[in-house]
Design a protein that fits this description.
Strand content: 15-25%
Number of strands: 8
Radius of gyration: 19 Å
Shape: globular
Order of helices and strands: HEHEHEHEHEHEHEHHHEH
Number of domains: 1
Strand order of the largest sheet: 1-2-3-4-5-6-7-8
Largest sheet: 8 strands, parallel, barrel
Helix content: 40-55%
Distance between the termini: 32 Å
CATH class: Alpha Beta
Amino acid sequence: MDCNFSKLQERLNDKKFTYTSEFGPPRGVNTNSIKEKVEILKGSVTAANVSDLQGSNMSLDRLATSHIIDSMGLEPVAQFTCRDRNRLSLQSDLLSAHILGIRNILCITGDHTTIGDHPTAKPVFDIDSVQLLWALSKLEQGYDLSGKKLKSKPNFFKGAAVKVECDTSASYELQLIKMKKKVECGAQFFQTMPIFDPDRFIEFIERIKSLNINVPILAGIQLLKSEKMANYMNKYLPGINIPQKIINKLTNADNKLLASLDIASSIINKIKTYCNGIHIGAKGWEKHITSLINKIV
């Protein structure tokens, strides 16, 4: 892909309801799992996030993985975290992404290294996700962060993350402030953390409209494999709050897959008119994404 606009950007610009998913690079150099997942996803979604050492766990690089899936016909959204690289390395990787034909970039600060499989690794956090978006915009203008002029300019479709279901009113207000700053620094679309309370999501959308934040929103939806997974997410993942009624439904279900699809489709059907698309987290259940989409009315 080497064009001014990615497929994801074109769909969102045209206000077409869009589905995206996630893609975790393997922990090793065998790419068979990548190719198998591409064949599953490319008929269901417009693009797929390629995570950047998700959860501070070591894996294959997101640029190599993005290049592979792009060559196979699935458009990547390359995640860029600020945890592991300073501004020099991030800018270099962004230029490399452009050369590889990767246009969709999701800027996130990243989980701390202490929660991952290398807890003694030293984090960097030279800049945060807001500053990274600003760096992207500067590169597109033809300058690096030191003010030096580039010999040629890249172009990207710049994304950011937002947490909707906050624990406190202060955290909620902070998300709105950061969201506005991200737009000012160049964010062109947002992906939310997984949504489990449709009413809170709708309230959030109404609030950002009142603040004149008008960029496409992809609402996050997570397929829950079991009540064990739900309880783990509640305990260890910041920004996640899965209601007890959902956990109870999974606990009492004879068929966890059908229960999970029912939970996810119910949420999507309630929020779909308030967002521009859905970002689906499947974590090994990618083959069921088509079934989920078919349940949307």
